[in-house]
Design a protein that fits this description.
This protein is mainly alpha-helical. Helix content is about 45%, strand content about 5%. The protein is built from 6 helices and 5 strands. It has a 3-stranded antiparallel β-sheet. It has a two-stranded antiparallel sheet with strand order 1-2. A hairpin with a 5-residue loop joins strand 1 (about 50) and strand 2 (about 60). Helix 4 (about 160-170) crosses helix 5. The relative contact order is 0.12.
């Protein structure tokens, strides 16, 4: 009986020691090491890819799209087609990430695309510049799979240059240069497509105009 009790006590003691060691190792040292490496090697990404204005104020994340209320002074992102509306954060209308999952020949989708195309053409028609229907890229009239895409194609950004320039009292060439400066190429030169981050572009535009 005594041996049985002694063995049980030893097993419990060994289990508690293992628990303590593994708690310190996996619950304290490992997270601290991973956090330290992340902060040292890529602090920006580890902290949520924050976008800051020239005053150092965080205005959002480069990973999540925002809307600008159809304000003609700003570059507009892709349409959003999530599954529900967000009543708390009015900066973006999505509560959950997702697409409409409508087929390409779905009448509602075809109607929405045609309406979006007409709106893009109307919104970006300014004195001295009238875009053609063939210039409207797909990302200007369709949402992404997540509905939260922070990027637009260079073609869509360039389509908006004249409107943004007129509304902000800037030369189109200067706004076009701003777009070029914020155009990213394919990842590693072959993955994905060239893209423009709308939040970063509008933040740079705001800094330029002093708004």
């Amino acid at each position: 009986m005594n041996n049985s009790v002694g063995n049980t006590v030893r097993l419990i003691g060994a289990g508690l020691r293992a628990l303590l060691v593994l708690t310190v190792l996996c619950g304290v040292l490992y997270p601290l090491a991973v956090t330290g490496i992340a902060q040292a090697a890529f602090a920006g990404k580890a902290n949520g890819s924050e976008v800051k204005d020239k005053g150092g104020r965080v205005v959002g994340s480069a990973l999540i799209g925002q809307t600008y209320g159809d304000d003609p002074r700003w570059f507009q992102p892709r349409p959003s087609a999530g599954l529900a509306r967000n009543t708390n954060n009015t900066q973006y209308e999505l509560l959950v990430s997702g697409a409409s999952n409508k087929a390409a020949d779905n009448p509602d989708l075809v109607k929405a695309v045609n309406e979006a195309k007409a709106k893009v053409l109307a919104d970006n028609t300014v004195p001295g510049y009238a875009p053609e229907a063939s210039q409207v890229p797909a990302d200007a009239v369709t949402s992404s799979g997540s509905g939260l895409d922070p990027n637009i194609s260079p073609a869509y950004a360039e389509l908006q240059v004249h409107r943004v320039a007129v509304r902000n009292g800037l030369p189109p060439a200067r706004v076009g240069q701003l777009v070029a400066e914020h155009t990213e190429g394919r990842t590693l030169g072959f993955m994905g497509e060239p893209r423009v981050n709308v939040l970063e572009l509008n933040t740079a535009l705001k800094d330029l105009t002093g708004q």
